[in-house]
Amino acid sequence: MKALDIVLFGGSGDLSLRKLMPSLYFLQRDGKLPEGSRVTAVSRGEMTSEVFRALVIEKLKLYLGSEYQASAAEEFVAGIDYMALDIASGSAWGELKAHLAPSEVRDIIYYMAVPPGLFGPICKQLHLNSLNPPSSRLVVEKPLGEDEESAEAVNALLSTGFAEEQIYRIDHYLGKEAIQNLLALRFSNRLIGAVWNQEHIESVQITVAETVGLEGRAAYLDHAGVLRDMVQNHLMQILCCLAMETPLSLAADDIRDAKVRVVKSLRPITSTNIEEHVVRAQYGAGAGMPSYLQELQGSRDAAGTGETYAALKVMVDNDRWHNVPFYLRTGKRLKERFAEVIVKFRPTPRNLFGVPASNQITIELQPDMKISLDMFMKQLLSDGRDLISHRQSADLAAGSGSRIPDAYEKLLGDVMQGNQAYFVRHDEIIASWRWIDGIRKAWREAELPMHSYAAGSMGPQASKAWFDEVPFVEELKKAS
Ligand code: BG6
């Protein structure tokens, strides 16, 4: 692979120091960064490269813990330069141009670790200064707009000088091992593929639960709410991986074509059906933690109207998923941090054993990465009518003994390889915003209630029934 010039706009910011530098450190340490590559951190503040390198070392020690190796870190930072750049000033761009090698020598990757307000000016300057040869790549991440209209506007800015094949839109959930494994699970197991449809599946639950609250992002989170911060991107990507048809191949556009088709098949949520399909809520005080509104006190730019929890009953209107609800939920300040998918199968057609035996597949996405199948078996030495539910689990990380790369590391590796399979295409973003915009319009029109849940709980009562665990056989028996 050709050597790379990796330019991090916002290079001294939090995302760069917390996620990108550690990812690049590992890629270099593990020999995945092509020989002769360089990293240039670009930010506004004046600083020498030497001071910046010391800062990177300090942060690597902090974030890598026991994975930190002094010699590897020294070697890594030796390839980092810092450049102070005032985006508005033409002369500064000339300096950057002089610093970057001609494209025959190195390919350039630009990473926009900056607020979206700077996407436009940066793209414009890269274009004006001819710093966007066809081999260059541009990495951006959310917020990529806050509705369909603004997402189109962001895209118009990015496409000043960059073609779709050069743009890598990050949804870091797509870099998670367990989420990439959903495609392997579905499309390489005939046993699963054969029953992955409405004939056999009763419902699917997708949960991304967080324990964190506002984390210093009050104004943004209150404005966006979890519907825009989490559902429009991360939960919808999980939904797409679960619901998509078999892609023609693993080529980026084949995967993305299949995902877009799912988003376009989602049943619109309107003011007439929203009450049955959406629950939104904010956390109140609980488990020794203050309420959302208490936490917001003193944040001037927050009106206190954002939802910190959303649950949705989503219908995918195609033959495969006819009448199968996908229940999505995500929330802040919940009881535990975990992400998982539960696929509930329909009961056996007849009930020979007196209990409705429904299998279940549980896919733990984080922090563990496990796939479990609940199967029914005869209870040993019983008269043959007593069943027990057995959970068989496979751990994705079992036995590897390897470090699991962070999502950013995986995705940066893909950018280097020029593989867009796990990056979001423009039309996917637009289709998902269109569907989310419809929900936001409906909840304004229908004045959807804002429920409350205690911090440290699993969300409001109003959506509880959608997420009940499948009871075990003994309980089913008692109930029948
Ligand atoms: C981000 C959201 O995209 O994802 C945050 O903006 C959220 O609000 C985070 O906390 C969750 O990511 P992860 O990888 O910790 O599940």
Describe this structure in words.
With 480 residues, the chain is α/β, with parallel strands linked by helices. The protein has 15 helices and 15 strands. It has helices spanning 14-29, 49-64, 70-77, 90-99, 119-128, 148-158, 177-187, 190-193, 218-243, 252-265, 274-277, 292-296, 407-417, 426-445, 473-479; strands at 3-9, 38-43, 80-84, 106-112, 137-141, 167-170, 201-209, 278-284, 309-315, 325-331, 338-345, 360-366, 370-378, 387-395, 450-454. Strands 14-13-12-11-7-10-9-8-15 form a 9-stranded mixed beta sheet. Helix 1 (14-29) packs across helix 2 (49-64), helix 1 crosses helix 3 and helix 9 (218-243) crosses helix 10. The model is unreliable at 470-474 (pLDDT under 50). 6-O-phosphono-beta-D-glucopyranose (BG6) binds at residues 210, 212, 229.
Please supply descriptive tags for the structure shown above.
480 residues; alpha/beta; nine-stranded mixed β-sheet; six-stranded parallel β-sheet; 15 helices; 15 strands; globular; binds 6-O-phosphono-beta-D-glucopyranose
Summarize, please.
Helix content is 36%, strand content 21%. The chain has 15 helices and 15 strands.
From the alpha-carbon coordinates, what is the Rg to the nearest angstrom? Answer: 24 Å
Q: Largest sheet, described in full?
A: 9 strands, mixed
Q: How many strand elements?
A: 15
- Helices, by number, come to 15
Return the structural class.
alpha/beta
